[in-house]
Design a protein that fits this description.
Bound molecules: adenosine-5'-diphosphate, magnesium ion
Radius of gyration: 18 Å
Shape: globular
Number of helices: 7
Structural class: alpha/beta
Largest sheet: 6 strands, mixed
Distance between the termini: 28 Å
Mean pLDDT: 95
Strand content: 25-35%
Strand order of the largest sheet: 6-7-8-3-9-10
Oligomer: single chain
Number of strands: 10
Length: about 230
């Protein structure tokens, strides 16, 4: 489903962000990406979603050769990928329901489709009772669940979570990870970028460890080990 082939990324001559990355991810895998700050994790994600171009190498996602996509082709391609971040990125003046509905409106969905779909997805992430609360009225874990719901509106083949629990306490973190596992079980590939050792070690899933732009370990049922 995803394949990085000899991918190198140099932002400027002094720093090589990624060096000769070879990585394959199969449909429906749950993969954690770990590594120190500056290891190249976010660059890997940016190349995968076409936000940056590799200096060398090829990146495939399903039938797409991502490094060859033109600017105009990116929006359709990106629908295959949902992404959430540490800082949630919700619209502060819209309720949980409206944050999701707005993304569907932008997408050109009809009101009746929106009215049918938003309650379903709120239920899936366990937020039906918080639908009409604004972000400032929600806990961090609830905000992240709204962000995840919004990321799922195109029924993406891949969900990328870049430090999704970075702002959350252990209980909320565990709930978000349980939700990511449920989404994975329902058939979505998940890439989890995280610094959280306890989470990674409790998952018993594949772990790709990065250091200094390289993949230094790649193990099924991996542990959180930094260089
Ligand atoms: N836009 C950029 N311009 C120049 N250097 C960058 C840029 N983005 C990242 N880097 C550098 O690339 C390396 C990898 O960064 P990054 O992918 O953000 O790592 P991580 O997400 O693992 O912390 C670092 O040395 C970082 O300073
Ligand atoms: Mg990063």
């Amino acid at each position: 489903m995803i394949s990085f082939q000899n991918v190198t990324k140099v932002y400027n001559k002094k720093s090589v962000a990624l060096e000769e990355i070879n990585l394959s991810i199969k449909p429906n895998e749950f993969v954690s990406i770990v590594g120190k700050n500056g290891a190249g994790k976010s660059t890997l994600i940016k190349l995968l979603i076409g936000e940056e171009k590799p200096s060398k190498g090829r990146i495939y996602f399903d039938s797409y050769e991502v490094n060859k996509l033109k600017l105009g082709e990116l929006p359709v391609f990106r629908r295959k990928i949902g992404i959430v971040f540490q800082d949630f990125r919700l619209l502060p003046t819209k309720t949980a329901y409206e944050n999701i509905a707005f993304a569907l409106e932008v997408d050109g969905k009809s009101q009746s489709e929106i009215e049918e779909f938003v309650p379903q997805i709120l239920d899936m992430v366990g937020l039906s009772d918080r639908a009409f609360n604004f972000p400032h009225e929600l806990s961090g874990g609830e905000k992240q669940r709204v962000a995840i719901a919004r990321a799922l509106i195109h029924q993406p083949a891949l969900l990328i979570a870049d430090e999704p629990t970075g702002n959350l306490d252990p209980i909320n973190s565990a709930e978000i990870i349980r939700l990511l596992l449920k989404i994975n079980e329902l058939g979505t590939t998940v890439m989890l970028v995280t610094h959280n050792k306890d989470i990674v070690n409790s998952l018993h899933k594949r772990v790709v460890s990065m250091d200094n732009g390289r993949i230094i370990r790649d193990e099924e049922n991996g542990k959180y080990v930094l260089a």
